[in-house]
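Q: What would this chain look like folded?
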Amino acid sequence: ISGVIYALLSGNEIDIAPENLLAIEALKRMNNEWSDYSDFELGVALSDYSSEALKGVANNAKGIYHELLFVEEFNLQNVQQQARIFEKTNEPGADIQIYSVETGDIIQEAQLKALQDSSGIYHHFDKYPDIDVIATNEIASAFENVQNSGFSNEEITADMNLVISQLSNDNTVDLATETAAISLLISAGQEAIEVLNGRKELNDAGKQTVLNVSVATSSTLIASYLFS
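A: My prediction, written as structure tokens:
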């Protein structure tokens, strides 16, 4: 039902800043089921997660976001060498490759780390001593053998949290608002049916009225209306 009401009120549009599009790409890479989702569909999927579960999603996607940011920036700054991520997100030991444009030879493979503490660095080198690490500012400066990615873990985390918040909150409508909105539409008779069926758009005044409604009807009424 959240998706139905959100579609009516927003026209399936979610306003994501251009600089945060890589964060959305990271979310889609994190879950194969989301790879072909629109931003709206991704938001609906995220709205099914609890606040605590969304923290886990953000933490997992943040690492992929860091990889995408690094590859994009590296490729903008270099001509003879380019970087690319592995097609699989679970490639053992490494996340990205840097290769020669002229020969195609692999120059470096590395794992990207977006961390607040150093334990993940030690763990990596214990398991993969021959694979380089490229880490966020906070950690890279503490290790002589770790390259700085040029990005801050704090900033990456904030970006990812913002995008997930925008996507999930825009699609998580409180039940009281949903039921009230449906109640209001039902009272409009045939016009409401045309709106729900996509034959008529809700005007701006109608949208504001729905958003301001605070008295809800029963969920039974909604179900009987939507599925009759």
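The longest strand covers residues 106-113.
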